[in-house]
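G.,

No rush on this.
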Amino acid sequence: WAVVTCAGWHPNFASPENLRSAASEIQNAMDHELEGADHSLAVLKSSSRTREDVREEAVDVMIEWLEGKSK
């Protein structure tokens, strides 16, 4: 198994610490925090980022992770 998670800094279901801990228990797992986003990748009004910024970051992280798995 290989797992990648991308989650916001303000998730409603699990804290970033919980997600890091869970990822550390899974072989080949990677966890990436999306600054300023929540679990649905929406951004806080106070954030300088847009939802599109967060989505692009998530896609970039997943592509980089997949490319690393194909080597």
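When you get to it, here's the other one too:
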Amino acid sequence: TFRVVVQEARGSVAARVGSTQAAVCGRNTGGFTVTLLEGRAPARYSLNGGTLQDSPTFSNLAAGPYSLRVI
């Protein structure tokens, strides 16, 4: 499940979750990549309120819901 939260710290931003890899039950093998649709690059990304990162790729994830922040 993906929920994208957009923070307009530097203007309008639009993003979508691009490629995904499903997690194997009981293992942290899932992941996804975010695609920036609108807004100025570079964007920064945060998963579940964690530290912002420059990379749009998140990996080693367990199955479950995640909240993505793009600024």
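The radius of gyration is 12 Å. Residues 13 and 39 are 4 Å apart (CA to CA).

Enjoy the weekend,
O.
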